[in-house]
């Protein structure tokens, strides 16, 4: 069968791939959207928590970074994004095989 998407002449494999591709793109978009909000909220909470007990005699001023790191168990946004993208690649290769 010759693939002609405009006329609706496509294989089941193509339709399956297209559906999987749409899901993967939605997963990446939504994961990025949700994680960006959650990371920002966690950062803001770390800053607020630190500001509430900041003492210039005892603190350097960047201790909120450690509070943030503890709150996310060391999973920084760039690492989260890399793992998410890698999972999409793995999902796409598994489903198309």
Task: Characterize the structure shown.
The chain contains three helices and no strands. Helix 1 packs across helix 2 and helix 1 (12-52) runs antiparallel to helix 3 (77-96). With 97 residues, the chain is mainly α.
SSE succession: HHH
Radius of gyration, taken over Cα atoms and rounded to an integer in Å = 22 Å
Termini Cα gap: 20 Å
Oligomer: single chain
Level of helix content? over 70%
> Low-confidence segments, ≥5 residues, pLDDT <50?
none
What fraction of residues sit in β-strands?
Answer: under 5%
Counting helices, strands and paired strands, the structural category is mainly alpha
Key features?
97 residues
Show the helix and strand layout:
Layout: H1 12-52, H2 64-71, H3 77-96
Helix pairs in contact: 1-2, 1-3
Summed up, what is this model?
This protein has 3 helices and no strands.
């Amino acid at each position: 069968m010759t693939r002609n998407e405009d006329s609706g002449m496509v294989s089941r494999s193509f339709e399956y791939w297209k559906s999987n591709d749409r899901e993967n793109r939605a997963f990446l978009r939504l994961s990025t959207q949700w994680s960006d909000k959650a990371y920002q909220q966690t950062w803001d909470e770390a800053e607020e928590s630190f500001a509430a007990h900041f003492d210039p005699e005892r603190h350097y001023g960047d201790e909120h970074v450690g509070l943030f790191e503890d709150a996310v168990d060391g999973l920084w946004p760039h690492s989260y994004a890399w793992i998410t993208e890698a999972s999409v690649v793995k999902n796409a290769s598994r489903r198309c095989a």
